[in-house]
Amino acid sequence: MKLLLTTLKGLEEAASMEARMRGLKLVSVLEPSLLIVEGEVEAALKLRTVDSVSEVLCLARVEDYTPRSIRSTLRRCFREVGEERLTGELRVKAWVRVRGVSRRIIELIAAREAERVFKVEANPRARSTMRIYLCADGTLLAARQLNTEPLHLRRYYVFKHPRALNPLLAAVIPILAPAESVYDPCCGSGTIPIEYSLAIRDAEVLCSDINVENVRGVRVNAGEAGACVEPFTADLFRCPLVRDVDLLATNPPRGGGVAYAYKYLRAVLRLAAARASKASLVTPYKQAALLAAERAKLRLIRDVATFQGGQRVHLLFFEVT
């Protein structure tokens, strides 16, 4: 089956790697955050770096961006799919990557053609969703979403942190930086260590936080996830790790601005230089992290630029020189 996977912009490479590891065949990267693959739905729904999985119904090019051209292209594609593919109520959501074209108009056109061809009822509150994409190169894509909730909403997330990391970002780390042992010294609610343990089951995963409630929360979340994580209470600024690990991976505090964040970035990277051979950070302050890395004698080997809650962030990967 041909499937559409959506992820965060910047995570396409990691999502492609994970898809191949799950036995899916990458067909193409349509646009930033959109991947077309072939394979089993069950395997796709287990991917941890994607936010939705949809069955591709229509993949065509429009002659121009007029409503008439878009309508005729959708109608032709829907007729090729067949009436039996969709039943009941349907919600239509559109994403438009072309200037001057209204997302709302595309949704109205698609909803009307779906009602006409598939004999379904368009309802904005329906649980079944049809995703419509009009790409900058003229590609028109229609797909039936297979997951009812966004896949980044992890069921293990019982204890909630006010600034929790998007688990899609955390899931990238074990793909791009696999290791036998990993340590997170600013674990919060445990997103990075839990995602790491779920991705690499035989890895030794340690994490700590200065807040006792956070450490208790990690135990709760890890138990819900079935992840093997060893959390403990410790102060980052007092060298909490007494032995070496392969990788230090963390999302350091950043709520107080760049000067506040730099204090944590420097402490994290100094600890990495002393106790690890590699480090991975999630931060919006790339230049501050590079300065801290230079002083700690770490070398940047990969920079993945993406987004967290609308803010541009970087997944930075370092190695000790």
Structure commentary:
The strands form 2 sheets. The protein has an 8-stranded mixed beta sheet with strand order 2-3-1-4-8-7-5-6. The chain has helices at 12-21, 41-45, 67-81, 103-118, 167-176, 191-199, 212-225, 258-275, 286-296, and strands spanning 2-6, 25-31, 34-38, 52-61, 89-96, 121-122, 129-134, 139-145, 181-184, 204-209, 230-233, 245-250, 276-283, 298-308, 311-320. It is 34% helix and 31% strand. Strand 10 (204-209), helix 7 (212-225) and strand 11 form a beta-alpha-beta unit. Helix 5 crosses helix 6 (191-199) and helix 8 (258-275) runs parallel beside helix 9 (286-296).
Biggest sheet character: 8 strands, mixed
- Alpha-beta classification: alpha/beta
Q: In CATH terms, what is the architecture of the largest domain?
A: 3-Layer(aba) Sandwich
Radius of gyration: 22 Å
Biggest sheet: strand arrangement: 2-3-1-4-8-7-5-6
Measured between the Cα atoms of the first and last residue, the distance is 46 Å
CATH topology of the largest domain, by name, is Rossmann fold
Strand content: 25-35%
Low-pLDDT ranges = none
Which key phrases capture this entry?
321 residues; VC0802-like; Rossmann fold; seven-stranded mixed β-sheet; 34% helix; elongated
Topology:
Elements: E1 2-6, H1 12-21, E2 25-31, E3 34-38, H2 41-45, E4 52-61, H3 67-81, E5 89-96, H4 103-118, E6 121-122, E7 129-134, E8 139-145, H5 167-176, E9 181-184, H6 191-199, E10 204-209, H7 212-225, E11 230-233, E12 245-250, H8 258-275, E13 276-283, H9 286-296, E14 298-308, E15 311-320
Parallel strand pairs: 5-6, 5-7, 9-10, 9-12, 10-11, 12-13
Antiparallel strand pairs: 1-3, 1-4, 2-3, 4-8, 7-8, 13-15, 14-15
Helix pairs in contact: 3-4, 5-6, 8-9
